[in-house]
Amino acid sequence: MSDQPASEGPMNLPVVEPAATTPYAENTRAVHAPRPDLSAVRPLGLPTYRTAAFEFERTQDYADVLGDRKPGYSYSRIDNPTADAFALGLASLEAHGLDRPVAAQVFASGMAAISTVFLSLCRSGAHVVAPAAVYGGTYGLLTHILGRFGVDASFVDMTDLETVRGAIRDNTALVWAETIANPTTAITDIAGVAALCRDAGVPFAIDSTFAPAPVCRPLRWGADLVVHSATKYLGGHSDVLAGALVTAKLDDAWAALAQLRHDEGAVLGPVEAWLLLRGMRTLYARVERQSQTAFVLATKLAARGVAVDYPGLQNHPGHAVAARQMQGGFGGMLSIRVADPLAVVGKLRVWVPATSLGGVESLIEHRASVEGPTSPTPKSLLRLSVGLEHPDDLWSDLVQALA
């Protein structure tokens, strides 16, 4: 229901006919306000579809969309155009250089994406192989939640292919890895683990939050699923929570993941999707600068005698593998080990102590404090996320704090 625009007057001004021309009451008109005709409008920035539901002219159209017989949108817990635009953009980045279709699904957080993978692929009695150096949220999910439902996990040195091979069992439902381990920066040989998983017939998923598409594209190296905490580099401005899954295997398992995403309701909101679309436009420029600065800082720290972990350094145990599978630098994440980490953090002025990464601000975090008393992270380790500040300012701040 809508009012017809006035037949006279300036065409670009919002004008309606007198109220006497409509039979509807005032409060009804307030609910069903007129809308401009946008059929010929092509906005440069994608609009944010902030709606829970979508209307249809015919009931049959509604039924056909719900039944997947025709494209369209019905309810934003199922799909939303703004969220789909971000998913398409991310899939296009991960698909670069591949000769097969790539699809993406987006979630309310990185942990929502991670938990959907495990809940979809694992049943009671299933076994998972995961890194000993694994993100604390993933470790907690496997031990505190899935363990209660009979899912067993082996935490192994993911950098040792023979150890990974030996950990795979007949009931292994998933091998999980991280492109760059959080927070130790250990490097997974993606192609090597992928080959082991193919031989065993086991799905291989990898968390590539530390190494987004400008740095590494794990699908190219054989991963079945790529997971991102889009909160980090993909958003890039520390103002959004989101997660994503990407795959080039459009099979029943992928359909099951989509169904679980719908059923559990961990979907991405349209406002968050719009923020991610904005962030993705500058992703390559940001990550290139962050990687360059991280390399400079890591080199200077190592020369100063600080124990530093950064895959771009030749003495890093995973440097050769990283150089092979990372096409755009070595990322903006590094870790250092110092005698009194909390004292160092307390002296910093440019680096911000905060629990996140991948934003425009340079952040530092004592990971063991965040993860709690059972944390496997060394107490001496500080995790550094390099932002967009001038390298000289970041270096001077580190020098005075380490002095």
> Would you tell me the structural class of the helices and strands?
alpha/beta
Enumerate the strands of the largest sheet in spatial order, edge to edge or round the barrel: 1-7-6-5-4-2-3
Radius of gyration from the alpha-carbon trace, in angstroms:
25 Å
Run of helices and strands: HHHEHEHEHEHEEEHHHEHEHEEHEH
Oligomer classification? single chain
How many helices in DSSP terms? 14
Instruction: Give the proportion of residues in helices.
Output: 25-40%
Number of strands: 12
**Main sheet properties:** 7 strands, mixed
Q: Could you list the spans in which at least 5 consecutive residues all have pLDDT below 50?
A: none
Instruction: Give the end-to-end Cα distance, rounded to a whole number of Å.
Output: 71 Å
On the 0 to 100 scale, the average pLDDT is: 93
Beta-strand share of residues: 5-15%
Shape: globular
Any chance you could write out the topology, listing elements then pairs?
Layout lengths: L25 H6 L27 H8 L14 H14 L8 E5 L2 H12 L5 E5 L4 H10 L6 E5 L4 H7 L4 E7 L11 H11 L3 E4 L17 E4 L14 E5 L4 H13 L5 H12 L1 H21 L3 E3 L9 H7 L7 E5 L3 H7 L4 E2 L9 E3 L1 H5 L9 E5 L5 H12 L1
